[in-house]
Amino acid sequence: MNGPDPPRVRTMEDFSAASGISRPTLSRYFNDPQSVRQASRVKIEDAMERFGYRPNLFALNFNRRNPKTLGIVVPSLTDPFYASLVQRIERQALSAGYWTIVQNSQGDPDLEAVSVATLMSLKLAGVIAIPLGHSSRESLYRQMVGDMPVVFLDARSDAEGTFVGTDNRQSIGLMVDYLLRSGPPPSYFDMPDVNQNARERREAYEAAMLERGAEPKIISVPTHDWDFERIAFDEAHRLFETGEPIGETILCANDRIAFGVMAAACQAGVRLGRAAGLRVAGHDDHPLSQYACPSLTTVAQDVERLATISLESLMQGVADGANLSSTRLIEARLIMRASA
Description:
Rossmann fold, 3 domains
């Protein structure tokens, strides 16, 4: 016959009583397994397996003097760029002994405010925030910066703190230089004015063209929507339909804009590519850019380095118990493919 079922264990007190392991030893183990002797670790882990016990991580974190939880705020998890950043930050944080809580604002200022409030209600070591940008509520992040270490990634906020992002002047300048050397001067297909990246890239394009003695030409999209592909497709379709001059080369503010332009060109019967009727280039090196038809010439943001430096900056703030005030700009690299 089988022996009696082990007692039901729900709390740490239950687990301590069932396993015969003192509560202080258990607390030390769950805060830092290396803080107890090897023999004690083996005994605790065997007991966890036997009784099927798993601690309440939220309760443990709340009771810690130094919490091991980080918050992340992103504008969208359907955008591969942001999803890649989150994936890398989560992996690196886990290696450093931290787990993450991710809040997706979905391009909505109201949801962003809820996301920030939710993270502020928890006991966190710090937060890596990618703000919506210009549509964020005024002063949204200022209280958070006053309460815990915060690093702003990719998009700036009106709050003081560390910022880590791509050097848009360098990346756009790199692409403008290549396009001018390899063919007709590029027009610039703008992105919605959702954050400072939109303005910085537009201004960088204008400056790069003027520095090289070329006349800037900007195709504007007067909206603050995050549905970049649809917006670009609709505007490019209109331009192709009306026959308005757009030039023989288009530099798009990001790859998602480029996808919309390329789709509209294909529908309009416009040949795309380096040796065809219209050259198109982008920015970001979206995971699908190499599979576009033709494959998209772009500049690649260093996602791994962006994630690494933002997390390192946050960990420095956690160690110091204060927010740092610094700016780290990361250079991009040119990816030459068939579209331009």
